[in-house]
Design a protein that fits this description.
Length: about 1100
């Protein structure tokens, strides 16, 4: 059993402890009077303690002799033992009894009622805190849900929250709790604490929440080939592997195809400092990487195709030598499994294909083979501002000194992919990169060189596929081409504009999910100044897909996340400014352009490129540091500002004062600010500003920034979702009678119904029904299957029969535009009729459900795939909006007549609605009376029509009279309903006198109707049955012998039945129905 090591003071230790064994580094002691015949405080036996002591002597002491200082020895020992503790805990978890896990799965399914498709990832013992009271229980982490259950002393606590509703997830500490995990769901905080595995639990929760967010909300960056794409196959081990691969690729800036295969701890002989550096060797499919762990910040990347041999010179020191092309060699020592590592490298050297082209010498002319497109093979700066070797200008002399410093660095640390990156490398970056080396170093530090090397000819093939094509992205690119650095000569000519067009179009074709977004043109134009065209393309890929993820999409989620991180850093490092400006959202809005364009849009180009140098070396950390330095530099002026406008003026004036005194660019290329000649304004050199940012804020670690990014991404996504919800509810609330709280719950039900359909599917088609680029109302839409499930949960009547047909008809009716999808407004307006409207409105809704023609394409989605990216015609939108405002309320006289089959369906629906109610018998009788009355009225109308036709003189040949037909409605409409419905329903209470006649002459069409004086729906006394059948409201084609009714006839008949009117006018318990739907929504999905 390993415990965290602590240093001991021998002087004090001798008073209470007796030394059993000792050496130069470790002491083995026992307590005076204890442990002579038994184990120590840890409960371990003397034999086990002796084994551990021998292991320390054999495996650690020999290694410690390499170190020169006591601090390094302490740091190494502590790190080594921590690793052993973690490895011991991991192996214990791996060896957990599978039977116990199966029991946990069954318990999880039983407690929370989730389907078997819901994958339980892991579970832990923990406490859930309600105020100051802990509830000890178990936390269950599954693919889509965070669940907790506790039952103690008769008190049951059961929680179940979907990951897609989590807005905050972080580790916190308080006076009461030393450390806990805070989970915020829909504005409510929940705290979980545990004695063991808190960090492991937190990391798994973080990964599951991030997975849900990316899969459901941020689909532009979610790849169908994602390692965790299948929610049914997610396991704890898969999550750990995925996180490890992501961290590995991010640190070394490697292509997305690379995965970490092996990790070995070792020492690397560093020739320039003549010391052994402790670190880890990381091996992937095509790269051998090393990163130090002793604070030297040394790392390097070796492509395996550069390795031609591996030697084992000294087995005693467990060393191996990796020989590279170009007469270079790397010596690793103290590798525990050095033979296995050597075998792995040898095997991978044979499988790693040698690329067809790679950057080995920046002076070589780039030739792009196999391309039909004319591609620029020179950086635009070399074309429009060639390097003049004979220029003796002081700025050029200083530029040559920079070049010489880098040449010395290359000679000492290497050049290209195998270069050692150390603190000295960063110091040279901070001072500024020479113009001639900028493109090469950008490619190297960004990792774009690895992408280009592993994809030879890719850019040329993209150009052949996309050039000449037409798309929305191409139109947007053409619009912004001449807005990209318009003052630079390179983009005042066709050479620069054409190169910019090709790079942007090729990337839009490569990544259609992003396509083209504003700010990409500004960044790409700067890349083209210093890199060749193909290199600029791969630099753009590195920025958009790795270094600034989620920045260049329609919601700029990545930029919003980094703004939240920036706010957090302001609170931590600039407390004086935080106290003065309690609302830091101002800095978020001001700094948006800083992050999107890497300060290019606010600084002159000659200064901005120095910022880009630091960005490609240190990533977003460099931009955050510089932002803090800018605010710190202007602290006094910002504290004097009274409003946001003054603060903006202060920052703009500061950026105008920033210069680059060492820039060798001519005046025609430099962007002179409006205050360039104003001597009263103090100038700030960009090199000094960047140096100050590293001195003051360089202690911000990249790992810390990445953790802050993950933590804030949940909050940013949920904030955007809340904004969408608020806008939707604001629009919908004007047309319905639900309260604000009820609308909020109904919206969450509607939104959750969309996700429930996607929880257990690899690539659910329903995922495409959520499009954040659409207007707020159309961002979430349900197809017919989703709609039917939710409609059946919320409809206010217990219709046990014809449930599917009723939901299907409601979907067709509410799908106003016929695209096979229903948005929230359409859904809630239909629900509002059933919950809150009058008897007439409810009956009209049921009437319209049954007069719709059946379609073979019911439920087929006809939404255009490019709908979300199509151009919005504002004139057409305003015209449609005006028409909606002017649209008069639908008149019941405009409704078409209902034919025989449709009326039978309406009757069946009414019987189903009434089934199971307290007044079921009287309601059945009322429907039977209304049916009989309507049929008798139709019979009388036909006879009157026949008699009038006989008295009317014929001017045209008459047709052969039709034989009499009997009505096809059954003798008892209710009996037919019961026959087709459930067999256990009671027989109809209608008496024979109330049933329809079985023998009568019914005319299918009539030109006149008897005027029955009843109250019309409009409140005036008027004939109800006065609509001629040849009016436009009649069916276009009615079969001979069929009969039909108008809505007015049915309404007038039912108004005479108080029990029916009372049933439909009865208040609906909306809150109870919503609570029932919330409770059973997942159960319905379970049993579907």
């Amino acid at each position: 059993m390993w415990l965290r090591p602590e240093e001991v003071l021998l002087k004090n230790a001798l008073k209470l402890w007796v030394t059993e064994k000792s050496n130069d580094y470790f002491v083995l002691q026992r307590r005076r009077g204890y442990g002579e015949d038994s184990g120590g405080l840890t409960g371990a036996s003397l034999e086990e303690i002796s084994q551990h002591w021998d292991w320390l002597q054999q495996n650690i002491i020999r290694t410690l002799s390499v170190f020169d200082s006591g601090e390094d020895i302490t740091s190494f020992v502590q790190g080594k033992i921590r690793g052993l503790i973690a490895e011991e805990g991991k192996s214990a978890g791996d060896e957990e009894d599978p039977e116990r896990f199966r029991e946990a799965v069954l318990r999880f399914e039983r407690l929370f009622g989730l389907p078997q498709r819901e994958k339980l990832v892991t579970y832990f013992s923990c406490s859930y805190w309600r105020g100051r009271v802990p509830n000890q229980g178990w936390i269950y982490l599954s693919t889509n849900f965070l669940c907790f259950y506790s039952y103690m002393l008769g008190n049951e606590v059961k929680l179940m929250y979907p990951w897609d509703e989590v807005s905050r997830l972080e580790r916190t500490s308080s006076v009461l709790l030393a450390e806990s995990i805070r989970v915020c769901v829909r504005g409510e905080d929940h705290y979980f604490s545990m004695l063991l595995r808190l960090q492991q639990t937190y990391l798994i929760m973080q990964q599951l929440a991030e997975y849900a967010i990316v899969r459901f909300f941020d689909k532009e960056t979610f790849n169908a080939e994602h390692p965790l794409a299948n929610p049914l196959h997610i396991m704890q081990k898969a999550l750990e592997i995925h996180a490890r691969n992501q961290s590995f690729r991010s640190f070394f800036r490697l292509p997305q195809e690379e995965n970490l295969c092996e990790v070995h701890e070792s020492f690397l002989w560093v020739p320039f400092s003549h010391v052994n550096t402790l670190g880890k060797i990381c091996v992937s499919e095509n790269y051998l990487c090393f990163a130090s762990q002793d604070g030297s910040q040394c790392h390097l990347i070796i492509p395996l195709w550069e390795v031609f041999s591996v030697e084992l010179p000294d087995r005693g020191s467990r060393a191996l030598t990796v020989c590279l092309r170009g007469k270079r060699a790397l010596r690793f020592s103290e590798v525990r499994d050095f033979e296995r590592l050597a075998a792995t490298i040898r095997r991978k050297c044979g499988t790693a294909g040698s690329p067809q082209h790679y950057i080995s010498n920046p002076d070589e002319e780039g030739v792009m083979v196999g391309q039909s497109q004319a591609v620029s093979t020179e950086a635009l700066m070399n074309v429009f501002h060639p390097h003049d070797a004979e220029n003796l200008d002081p700025k050029m002399l200083k530029e040559r000194m920079k070049e010489q410093s880098w040449q010395i660095h290359f000679a000492e640390y290497g050049r290209g992919s195998g270069m050692f990156c150390t603190k000295k490398t960063r110091d040279l970056i901070v001072r500024g990169v020479p113009e001639t080396l900028r493109g090469e170093l950008w490619m190297l530090f960004s990792g774009a060189v690895h992408d280009m090397t592993s994809h030879p000819g890719y850019y040329g093939r993209l150009l052949e596929e996309c050039m000449g094509s037409s798309s929305l992205a191409c139109d947007e690119i053409e619009r912004d081409l001449h807005r990209s650095l318009p003052e630079h000569p390179a983009f005042q000519s066709d050479t620069g504009i054409s190169a910019l067009r090709r790079v942007l179009t090729a990337y839009a074709h490569r990544n259609p999910k992003i396509g083209y977004c504003q700010a990409m043109n500004i960044l790409t134009s700067v890349l083209l100044l210093y890199a060749k065209e193909e290199e600029a393309f791969w630099l753009l890929v590195a920025v958009c897909e790795r270094m600034l993820p989620d920045y260049f999409n329609r919601r700029i989620i990545g930029a919003l996340v980094d703004q939240a991180v920036f706010e957090e850093l302001i609170r931590e490092h600039l407390t004086q400014l935080t106290e003065h400006m309690t609302d830091l959202s101002f800095f978020s809005s001001v700094s948006l352009s800083w992050f999107l364009t890497l300060f290019i849009s606010v600084l002159p180009i000659e200064s901005a490129v120095n910022v880009v140098d630091c960005f490609f070396y240190d990533g977003i950390k460099a931009i955050l540091q510089l932002g803090l330095a800018v605010l710190d530099y202007n602290m006094d002026n910002l504290l004097c500002c009274h409003d946001d406008a003054e603060a903006v003026t202060v920052l703009n004036r500061f950026f105008d004062s920033v210069t680059n005194k060492d820039s060798p660019l001519p005046a025609t290329v430099q962007q002179a600010s409006a205050t360039a000649n104003d001597k009263s304004i103090q100038k700030v050199d960009i090199s000094d500003l960047i140096k100050e940012s590293y001195e003051k804020y360089g202690n911000i670690r990249t790992e810390e920034v990445e953790n802050m990014r993950k933590r804030n991404k949940l909050y940013v996504i949920q904030t955007l979702e809340d904004t969408t919800k608020q806008n939707v509810l604001r629009v919908v609330a004007q047309d319905v009678k639900f309260s604000a709280a009820q609308l909020d719950e109904l919206y969450m039900l509607f939104k959750r119904q969309h996700f429930v359909s996607c929880y257990w599917s690899v690539c659910s088609p329903a995922l495409q029904n959520h499009d954040p680029s659409l207007p707020y109302l159309d961002q979430y839409q349900l197809d017919q299957s989703q709609f039917s499930s939710l409609f059946n949960l919320l409809q206010p009547w217990t219709t046990h029969t014809h449930v599917r047909s009723l939901a299907r008809s409601a979907f067709r009716l509410l799908d106003a535009n016929g695209d096979g999808l229903v948005n929230f407004k359409e859904f809630i307006c239909g629900l509002d009729i059933l919950y809150n409207r009058s008897f007439t409105e409810k009956l009209k809704f049921l009437f319209k459900l049954h007069i719709q023609p059946d379609s073979a394409e019911d439920g087929v989605i006809r939404k255009c795939p490019e709908r979300g990216r199509a151009k919005v015609d504002l004139q057409e939108y305003l015209k449609q909006w005006q028409e909606d405002l002017q649209r008069r309320e639908e008149n019941i006289k405009d409704l078409p007549r209902i034919n025989q089959v449709q009326f039978i369906g309406l009757t069946k629906t009414l019987y189903g609605v009434f089934h199971g109610t307290e007044e079921e018998e009287s309601l059945y009788r009322a429907v039977a009376r209304v049916t009989s009355l309507l049929l008798r009225m139709e019979e009388v109308g036909r006879k009157l029509q026949e008699s009038s036709l006989q008295k009317t003189p014929q001017t045209t040949p008459t047709s052969t009279p039709q034989p009499e037909t009997s009505p096809t409605l059954p003798t008892s409409p209710e009996n037919e309903t019961l026959a087709e419905g459930k067999g256990d329903q009671p027989e109809s209470p209608a008496s024979p006198q109330e049933t329809a006649p079985s023998h009568s002459d019914i005319t299918p069409t009539s030109t006149s109707r008897p005027s029955t004086p009843t109250s019309s729906p409009t409140g005036t006394s008027s004939p109800v049955l006065d609509t001629p059948t040849d009016t436009p409201s009649s069916p276009s084609a009615v079969r001979d012998g069929d009969w039909s009714f108008s809505f007015e006839q049915i309404l007038a008949s039912l108004l005479n039945e108080p029990s029916v009117v009372r049933f439909f006018e009865r208040a609906v318990d909306t809150d109870s129905l919503i609570a029932h739907a919330c409770k059973n929504q997942l159960k319905v999905a379970h049993f579907k």
